[in-house]
Description:
Blueprint: E1 2-6, E2 11-15, E3 19-26, E4 29-31, E5 43-45, E6 50-58, E7 103-105, E8 116-124, E9 143-151, E10 157-166, E11 171-180, E12 186-190, E13 192-198, E14 204-209, E15 217-222, E16 228-232, E17 241-248, E18 259-265, E19 270-276, E20 282-287, E21 295-297, E22 302-304, E23 307-313, H1 316-331, E24 345-347, H2 349-352, H3 358-370, E25 375-378, H4 407-416, E26 420-425, E27 429-430, H5 435-439, E28 459-460, H6 466-482, E29 487-490, H7 512-530, E30 535-538, H8 548-553, E31 556-558, H9 565-575, E32 584-589, H10 602-609, E33 613-617, H11 625-647, E34 649-654, E35 661-667, E36 673-680, E37 690-692, E38 702-705, E39 711-713, H12 714-720, E40 722-724, E41 734-742
Parallel strand pairs: 24-25, 24-33, 25-26, 26-29, 29-30, 30-31, 31-32, 32-33
Antiparallel strand pairs: 1-2, 2-3, 3-6, 4-5, 7-12, 8-9, 9-10, 10-11, 11-22, 11-23, 12-21, 13-20, 14-15, 14-17, 16-19, 17-18, 18-23, 19-20, 27-28, 34-35, 35-36, 36-41, 37-40, 38-39, 38-41
Helix pairs in contact: 6-7, 9-10, 10-11
(2R,3S,4R,5S)-2-(hydroxymethyl)piperidine-3,4,5-triol binds next to loops.
Amino acid sequence: MAIYVSRELKQFHLQNANTSYILKVLPEKVSLGIKLPNGRIPEIPLPEGTLVNLYWGKKLPDGDMGYLMQSFNGAASFDSMEGRLPYEMPFHGVGYYGDAALKVKNAQGNDLVYLTYAGYDICKGKKPLKGLPATYVESDDEAETLVIYMEDKLTGLKAEFSYTVFAGSDAIARSVKLVNGAEDPLRVTRLPVASVPFYGKDFDVIHLHGAWARERAVERVPLTHAGARVESMRGASGHEENPFIALCRPGTDEFTGEAWAFNFIYSGSFLAEAEVHNSDNARMSIGMNPSVFEWLLEKGEEFQSPEVVMVYSDKGLNGMSDIYHKLYRTRLVRGEWRDKERPILINNWEATYFDFNTEKILKIAEKASAIGIELFVLDDGWFGVRNTDNCSLGDWVVNEDKLPGGLAPLAEKINSYGMKFGLWFEPEMISPNSDLYRAHPDWCLHIDGRKRTEQRQQLILDMSRRDVQDYVVEAVSGVLRSANIEYVKWDMNRNMTEYFSAKAAPERQMETQHRYMLGLYDVMERIVSAFPYILFESCSGGGGRFDAGMLYYMPQTWTSDDTDAMERLKIQYGTSYAYPTSAMGAHISAVPNHQTGRVTSMDVRGDVAMSGNFGFELDLGKLSEEDLAVAAKYVERVKKLRGILQKGTFTRIVSPFEGNYCSWQFVSEDAKQAILCAFRRLSEPASSGKRVYMKDLVPDAVYRDTETGKTYSGAELMYAGLPIRFPFPPKDYSSLVFVFEKV
Ligand code: DGJ
């Protein structure tokens, strides 16, 4: 890891083990090195100090990269040459007509800025982003941070572009701070936090799209002049798109080729774009969504953006994911549970929905403890008068009709079975039919005089308000103090519609979505730091807020409400593009599956669920003796293997989006153990056997299949492949798991 600064060349070169990222400050006149037919070499007159991006890709030796500017010429163009420069932070008003552009409205009423270079700082380590989730370091030796100071001389806007390179990771973390250095107010109306120009347009775009119960499907399309736009305006990262976008070469696959990716450490609305300009050069950006974001900066005020983690890989898409997984698992997730083995849980939601009482719960818990399950989670319906989803959100008072004596004796009883006790909350919400709403009808996001749009018969608390934040902290903490609660599922079951606040001044209403996120992050910080022993799992109607922002506060996320094993193959495969398996909640649920009606075997459900944070979501009492034995087998297996399942290197091998098969593997940190999982969706009559080619083993090491005792060299498993023989007689929905140990 290094940051090279050449004062002479005015060049910054950020370098980590395999990546270079090179910026240059341009002088007042720039020649792009082209000779016109009349012999003239035109120069572009510029304000001194324009910052351009020369390169992001495979590591380069440090040297003068200024010659790359020649490739951005526009000699024959109708447009101005200034418009074609590879700006590090693009802005309009210079002939740049791309979509992603910083826009800040000034006292004159226009929104143009022109930022020029005003200096830099380099420091060891990485400073936290106040009030925002971000990657971190544990010692200053782990990273170096470059801050480039920029200013707009006309409007007084100042900006700090911050870049961190890590010693142990090929990621670059990037954020922007904007400061109003003028007398008059400025209004930020568009902020792409990371925006990188690329030479050429020969790329595919990858993004993760979906809906409730089918989150994060991998979509890959060629980048064309029509570009690609991926966004959420929902006030949450959302089921529909994830704050992740990547460009890769058309030939890039899971194992080889180049990929460049952005992941936004943010849980609210966002906009990610890939564009091709008329110069036939591309640009990829991610940042605040201008449709639902504005920020007023009074004199001296500043706006700190959330962080973007940029990853370049020349080892295919698995190489890209591996960089995200390792960084997020070790330097985004925090707290006691970061490195601890996660408990195997059972959740009563699909077993009982709202229809439970102490007796029913204890029956499920007792049965679970008998097969070694370690944590019982009581889901929705334990508070207020919530016997269906039309009431009581906000009234975090235990329903003693269902649970006489409250939570403490229930937790005690469950503890006496040798299990931890966990509890569901939906703290950001308020039901119109609740005591809280009757007392504080203005505490929800709304617009006076307009209908308050309900979704799932609920409204959203205005988390931008301090009084609401304090209420939520106190209400949740009070419950957490009232019983031995060691796990919390933090749910959030609707998105924003009227994203405005009764408390905000008119000129600040468009800040509400982001202020909500800042308020939520503050509440989460206060709660998770007050209860460090609690394992928190975030959730949003399944995986509607599966993002890096949440992972900073809560080390795991409920991946999807869809627990059907075949659907989960795709959901978990897609989620792994940016997020580690240690972040993904994955449970065995009942069949016919409640979301798809599909019937799969206990084994296939187990094999899929053990590839994430393993648990159950059913009434074990309703299982056949045979299925219960299989459930017990998985509990035992996961206890043995969870070290590698949570911390090993996860590699996707065969994509469920491309055919009938799916396969992935885990290799332990010390490379002594490897687990191969293979899945087949539909039976294929008269087909020949399949081979799966494992990855990243030691070629000349010997690996023993722990079930059959057969040994293979690493080379055999990787290059000749392992024949996958699914059970006979053939059936739909099969899986196989092989556990190898290095001899
Ligand atoms: C949505 C979650 O994803 C489910 O697991 C469950 O907790 C329900 N909410 C409860 O309302």
